[in-house]
Amino acid sequence: IEEKIEKNKTEGYRLFTVLNTPLKAEESVDNIEKNIIKVHYVTKETIDPENPDAEVEKKTGYQIEYYYDNKKDNRKTEVIETKIGETITRQTLREKIENNKEEGYKFVKVLNEPLEISTNVDNNIVKIHYVKNEVNIVDPEDPDAVDKTKEIKTAYTIEYYYDNQKDNRLTDLEIVKLGTTITKETINEKISQNTKEGYKFVEVQNIPLETNEDIDNNVLKIHYVSNNVNIIDPENPDKVDPDREIKTAYTIEYYYDNKKDNRRTEIEVVTIRTTITKEMINEKVVQNTKEGYKFIEALNVPLKTEEDIHNNVIKIHYKTETEEPVDPNEEEIGYIIEYYYNGTRNNTLTEIKEAKINSVITEETIQEQVEKNKTEDYISVTVLNTPLTISKEIERNVIKVYYVVTPKETDNKKYKIEYYYDNEKDDEKTEEIKDIKGNVITERTIEEKIKNNEEEGYKLSKIENTPLVIEENEENNTIKIYYIKRTDLSYRVEYYYEGEKEEDKTENIENQTYKAEISTYTDKVKEGYRLEKTENLPLTITTEEANNVIKVYYIKRNDLSYKVNYLEKGTNNKIKETKIVENQIFESTITTVGEIVEIEGYNYNSIDKESLTITVNDNEINIYYTKREDLSYTVNYLERDTDKV
Fold this sequence. Notes:
Layout: H1 2-7, E1 13-19, E2 38-43, E3 60-68, E4 71-72, E5 78-82, E6 87-88, H2 94-99, E7 105-111, E8 115-116, E9 125-132, E10 153-162, E11 165-166, E12 172-177, E13 181-182, H3 184-193, E14 199-205, E15 209-210, E16 219-226, E17 247-256, E18 259-260, E19 266-271, E20 275-276, H4 282-287, E21 293-299, E22 303-304, E23 313-320, E24 332-341, E25 344-345, E26 351-356, E27 360-361, H5 367-372, E28 378-384, E29 388-389, E30 398-405, E31 412-421, E32 424-425, E33 431-436, E34 440-441, H6 447-452, E35 458-464, E36 468-469, E37 478-485, E38 489-497, E39 500-501, E40 507-512, E41 517-518, E42 529-535, E43 539-540, E44 549-556, E45 560-568, E46 574-584, E47 589-591, E48 602-607, E49 611-613, E50 620-627
Parallel strand pairs: 3-9, 10-16, 17-23, 24-30, 31-37, 38-44, 45-50
Antiparallel strand pairs: 1-2, 3-4, 3-5, 6-8, 7-9, 10-11, 10-12, 13-15, 14-16, 17-18, 17-19, 20-22, 21-23, 24-25, 24-26, 27-29, 28-30, 31-32, 31-33, 34-36, 35-37, 38-39, 38-40, 41-43, 42-44, 45-46, 47-49, 48-50
């Protein structure tokens, strides 16, 4: 109708917008009055000749379309002039909604509101939907005002985005039975029908959608991008040009008191393997903080965007702010549950639960969630970080649930166990074990290996990298088991004297290290004894403590001596050279009488002891003599020179 538009354009006016195009003409002659196209013109904006540099406010507006049982009444379509930047809400349209409610119909929903007015009048569209009174549909303003004895209906909205710009003209509404689950298969035909020339489908957000009473929140968003964007095809990830920069997308979902606001869900296109950090989404966190709410946590960040667009999901959580002070003992905070399948976190399932600070979350606490998220090909499940004591720092309150499911060929991986003894790796013991990516290897899994590789004299010191979640990169799949020598061993030292062990002298020395060499002992030599020999010295500590014995043998000294003094009684003058007798044995007994000798001019008188016991010092025998008194002398009278008597 371009020719007609031009033909009817009068001087001083410009085309404002065309309503009800494209128009599919009604077949029935009775409905011919509904086959209406409305062409709107506005006066041209003129420049003030006295102030030519002044900014000219361009006229714009928005269209209102009215739908009855999902059929647009073209007669009612209208355009309202307004300013750029104005926001059109349901409240703005309240009067229009009431005035256009036809007899026998009731209001259901306004699509595309709130609508922020742009310069593009063609895209400034709100759609007001009504249904017949007999349709037992949830009233968005009074959800309880419904006949619960009949089948209850609800509605969901489908929005279409092209390079992240919503085409308000295409937004549509579907009425379904309450609780109906909308899957991608449900809307595949709509996805195809609305694939514009030059665009390709990328993703559906908020799917699967279980329709509920909150009609405003039953929203699906279908995203397309230009064909020139080299983006991963979710249905065929290998169909991408490897010679160009590869793009992917990630979704941001917003939750308020753990309820997702589907209207706010958004998508961002980025280069593949871009890491999205909390700092990168801070602005969005602030922009989407509703009045009366406070930010709690962003789940799945940092997020490394991968080929699987469906799994590139960030969840931003808010919580109602309370004005009254909270008892510290009653204060609740969130804890996060993450779900992994063969090692890959399913970001769509990550969730946040609330619990009181210092309460304890056990595996039993989350058993329902664990069971709910088991897949049909589930093999095993391991829950890490339970029991979890809830702290004030939500990022520390994380439970991870690891499922092993039927593996693809690429999921078959290996992990290594390395054994260290006194920090030295025993390469001969290193073993490689086949397993599945994402399986969790705990100490309990390998407890038999830990026990079997505990060598004699060693004990387990520590285990590194358990629990081990088997990764794609097998270099990281290594458990290290460290053993150290036992230090709880003991040895004893036994002391023998002349071959007899003295029990009270035995020493027990504890806290000894396996294979330590003992080369010293406490010398317990008695007076008069000397070391004869030792046995088991040096001693190497073994685990057989009965054999950890050092024996020390002492015998009596045989290098002692005694002296015999020959003395004049009364004066103690030595009358004969002292006799020294060597090589005497300690504690041996000497019979002193045997040491009496005759000394010329003297008579034996007495001895100071009958016997002498050899000691280490002062071994003396004193024998006393007196001068003889039975002697005489002769006087000879001789002739000189002849000696004759």
